[in-house]
Amino acid sequence: MSRTIDAPPAWKNPVSLRQLRFFVELARTGNFCRAAEEMSVSQPAISAGIRQIEAHLGVRLFDRTTHKVTLTDAGISLLPHAQRLLTTAANAFSDMHEVAGREIATVRIGAIPTAMEAVAASLAELAGDMPGVVPHLHDGRADQLIRGLRGGTYDLVVTVQALPDDDLEGVPLFEDEMLLVARADHPLAAHDRLPWRALAGQEIVHFAGGSIGELTSAALQQNDLAPSTRYRVDQVNSLYGLVLSGLAIGVMPWLYTLGFPEDRLRRIRLDGPTVRRQLRLLHRPQLREEHPRGVEFAQRLTAKLRDKLSANRLP
After folding, report:
1. How far separated are the first and last CA of the chain, in Å rounded?
2. Are 180 and 238 within one domain?
3. Measured by CB atoms within 10 angstroms of the end CB, which terminus of the chain is less buried, N or C?
């Protein structure tokens, strides 16, 4: 239970970044002594900082016992907000340092691995168009990127999402179609297009997690098919290895197949249904107020990415 505490007016005794760090560290360690050691302060300083936050917000953040400290329901709800504020503050201080020293702006970008080549090539071209902007680029899984975007780690994210959530905005970049991948001498490789039901009786492998797994599993179930129980893969090279061996056929998005050995593998389009995933560039609505140059950069990056990705569109 979270007990309510009488809160002072919001303008009195504002919560500091230091106190927020105390809150996040105590939530992580669950122990006042360890939190104080990690923050290089005394235990009374941690206790005082937590009391001040609780007094300011009017709720109790922790339940304290002799042996452990646990978050209340209010503490659990408030923790991600505190983490996001600290991440945003750290990024802002870093940006201020760079602006003061070199008069530049930083744009932090996350991208799923299949989009990295197009994103990197677009950034290289934009370097001459916007010399005052320095992009930082990281890759990651779609769920990690979305969390990072919400948490303030990224300004922009290129990822796969059916529709942006209410707290995010996005623009479509590319529809990535799911394909059958088979060894060149496989009987199914003679076709340019097949219905999903033609995969019956085959050992079918695909990535189990994320949007790829969800979309492929739904299409298989719709056609009374099931993925292989003998072979499971999570990596591109693993899937290619199984397909090249002839032990299985694979289902994967078009972007994953770029640059693959066409003399040894074949790509076959699938229908009934045709399955596509939407690649989008996402950002938080606050970007307009927080990072005006980031908005301009996002617009230019969107145009570049659409050009590059459309060049790889299926015939």
Report:
1. 59
2. yes
3. C
Does the residue 67 lie in any domain?
yes
Using DSSP, state whether 284 is helix, strand or coil. Answer: coil
Residue 50 sits in which domain range?
1-102
In sequence order, the 6+-apart residues with CB closer than 8 A to the CB of 286 are none
Closest C-alpha among 83, 150, 153 to residue 161? 150
Please check whether residues 4 and 132 belong to one and the same domain: no
What are 294-304's pLDDT values in tens digits? 889 999 999 99
Distances (CA, A) of 242 to 75, 181, 223, 251, 285: 48, 11, 23, 12, 43
Provide the domain count of the chain.
3
pLDDT at 11: 39
Q: Are strands 169-183 and 276-283 parallel, antiparallel or unpaired?
A: antiparallel
CATH of the domain at 153: 3.40.190.10
Mean pLDDT of the 156-168 span:
80
Is 161 domain-assigned?
yes
Closest CA to 131 of 303, 302, 297: 297
Instruction: Find the CATH number of the domain harbouring 180.
Output: 3.40.190.290
pTM: 0.66
What's the CA gap between 114 and 256, in Å, rounded? 6
Strand ranges in the chain using DSSP code E only, listed in sequence order: 62-64, 69-71, 105-111, 133-139, 156-160, 169-183, 193-195, 204-205, 249-253, 265-271, 276-283
Same domain? 294 vs 219: no
d(CA 278, CA 156): 16
Residues 150 and 116 occupy one common structural domain: yes
Q: Flag whether 253 is in a domain.
A: yes
**Which two tokens mark 28?**
């992580």
DSSP category for residue 15: P
Flag whether 124 is in a domain. Answer: yes
Question: If pLDDT is split at 50, 70 and 90, which confidence band does 164 have?
Answer: low
Could you write out the DSSP letters of every residue in 201-212?
Answer: TS-EE-B-SHHH
